[in-house]
Design brief:
By secondary structure, the chain is mostly helical. The protein has six helices and no strands.
């Protein structure tokens, strides 16, 4: 889903971006201790779409978008940390791959 949304907006998600996002899976390297990989990946896609290219550009609009994305994500799954999501929603491990793809 995250990659599909990125492809819908970007035309094609660059392979380098997909590779760069891989280590974030499973709460950072599969540790389940850090930020959910879906939230990290979605943030990377939003950055690819709306991120700045020079220091002169402003970040406020992107940061507001990321805050809204995070808030909506937490409202749906109850947390932003992988371990808390797994503890709250044990069936989530079956749903992560389809959400990412």
């Amino acid at each position: 889903m995250v990659i599909a949304v990125g492809e819908h907006i970007l035309g094609e998600v660059p392979e380098a971006l997909i590779r760069a996002a891989c280590p974030f899976g499973g709460g950072l390297g599969g540790s389940k201790e850090e930020l959910c990989g879906v939230l990290s990946g979605g943030t990377l896609i939003l950055g690819a779409i709306r991120g700045r290219l020079s220091p002169e550009e402003k970040d406020e609009a992107l940061y507001a978008l990321i805050r809204r994305f995070r808030e909506r994500f937490i409202a749906q799954v109850g947390a932003s940390q992988c371990k808390a999501i797994y503890n709250n929603l044990p069936e989530m491990h079956k749903r992560c791959v389809p959400v990412v793809e």
